[in-house]
Design goal:
Blueprint lengths: L8 H20 L8 H30 L9 H37 L24 H16 L3 H19 L6 H10 L10
Helix pairs in contact: 1-2, 1-3, 2-4, 3-4, 3-5, 4-6, 5-6
Length: about 200
């Protein structure tokens, strides 16, 4: 088994992508920030690479089980670090999605109001935010990432966090985005799956 200090290239690469997301999401949530379209693209691509990393990790684990191998794809210390990092990423992602959905819903309501009744101001979102959340490529990748991770991780903490806000986002998007119904369904189903200790 490799040493916990010997980090494979894939590990270093995915850490860079996680850092990219963590450092950029707060700016994307701030309407006054000066991030540009390239930042949105880089963050979306970083989520895509995180998805590929999760898939690869799952495939390696399943292959090991089928072949009765005992060698882990990463040192156990690194696997624990991966789980911690992914939990933090999921929390940050859910926070972003909830804020994004709240603004999207509020602005849709204002747009539907009669012209003379539009006394409310549009909820601020970043100037480069796509107007339709259901067609936002960043949102699409975020939801797929969450669905893949929720299927593999049994953290009740994350599920409770999702039930407190993300469920509303999933329900709201389900009728608006037919292409997203698969990850939305997985997330909603996984939010209510009890962990091994029987929590609900």
């Amino acid at each position: 088994m490799s040493s916990p200090t010997a980090k494979p290239a894939a590990w270093n690469f995915i850490q860079q992508r996680l850092n990219e997301i963590r450092s950029s999401i707060p700016s994307l949530m701030d309407p006054s920030s000066d991030v540009d379209q390239m930042t949105w693209f880089r963050v979306a691509m970083s989520y895509e690479l995180v998805i590929a990393f999760i898939k690869n990790l799952v495939e390696k684990s399943e292959s090991m089980s089928e072949e009765n191998e005992v060698e882990l794809p990463y040192h156990p210390v690194l696997l624990l670090r991966i789980r911690e990092d992914m939990s933090n990423l999921c929390s940050l992602t859910m926070e972003y999605l909830c804020d994004r959905f709240e603004a999207w819903e509020a602005n849709k309501t204002i747009r539907r109001a009669p012209r003379g009744n539009k006394t409310e101001r549009f909820k601020s979102v970043h100037k480069d935010t796509p107007p339709n959340m259901a067609e936002d490529e960043l949102v699409t990748r975020q939801l797929w990432m969450l669905s893949y991770w929720f299927e593999e991780d049994d953290s009740e903490v994350l599920r409770k966090e999702a039930r407190s806000g993300l469920i509303k986002v999933c329900i709201g998007l389900y009728s608006e985005a037919e292409d997203l119904r698969t990850p939305l369904s997985i997330i909603m189903e996984q939010c209510w799956v009890p962990n091994e200790e029987g929590s609900s």
